[in-house]
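Anyone able to model this chain together with adenosine-5'-triphosphate?
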Amino acid sequence: MTVIAIDGPSGVGKSSVSREVARRNGFGYLDTGAMYRAMAWLCLQRGVSDPGDVVEQIRGVDFEISTDPEHVSVEVDGIDVTTDIRSEDVSTNVQIVSSVPDAREELIGMQRDIISRVSADKGGIVVEGRDITTVVAPDADVRILMTAREDVRIARRAGEIHGEATEESVEATRAQVADRDRKDSATTSFLTAAEGVHTLDTTHIDFDESVEAVMGLIDQADGGNK
Ligand SMILES: Nc1ncnc2c1ncn2[C@@H]1O[C@H](COP(=O)(O)OP(=O)(O)OP(=O)(O)O)[C@@H](O)[C@H]1O
Ligand SMILES: Nc1ccn([C@@H]2O[C@H](COP(=O)(O)O)[C@@H](O)[C@H]2O)c(=O)n1
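re: yes, here you go
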């Protein structure tokens, strides 16, 4: 069973690269950010923002996340929220959940259960987020911190949202990316690699090269285990 842990800031390419790496290896894929987003969606729907109440919402919810890299989906209380959790409202308010230590403990427990079950079932899993290499799966077989210069990440995200990275779209995206990283830095450490974690700087490499670099690190770890 192989566990690949990938962390990094907003827009660096964690989700897209992790999904492709999972696909190529026949592994499962877990987007932990989608879990925080789903719980934030739930709290926003119910008008809950008090930290104590946030934890209660999470404990009582019926939650499903697909770990199939070919088909990513998220359900909360039987409602498909796959698209809604990507809204600007959720993106700017996700910290109502991710900044609450008890809420994190709940989600980390769920993430560890999924990692054990799916890696046993599929032979491996690629898990991505902000605290996977350090807190959720510090014993993962391969641990990677993906980085890229902030202006490059903003241009990538702007291209994704607006179709192309024009001056206007870049400005509109800048605050979102930088703001989220600043807020997230208060609870998780994803800008510098912890001991034993590989840093993969993607500033000057494209998507395919990033995937190849992760595949190379997996091969390297496999070689070391033989
Ligand atoms: N190395 C790369 N070079 C160029 N573009 C890339 C690279 N890696 C990913 N991308 C593109 O950048 C965009 C953002 O990637 P992605 O959504 O995977 O980032 P993320 O780190 O998961 O962000 P977030 O944490 O905000 O969800 C996507 O359009 C993706 O195709
Ligand atoms: N391990 C993680 C993953 C995510 N978060 C929080 O969720 C937000 C959304 O994550 P995306 O990867 O979908 O951008 C993120 O901004 C964090 O607040 C987290 O705390 N830990």
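Strands lie at 2-7, 28-31, 63-65, 74-76, 79-80, 124-129, 142-147, 198-201.
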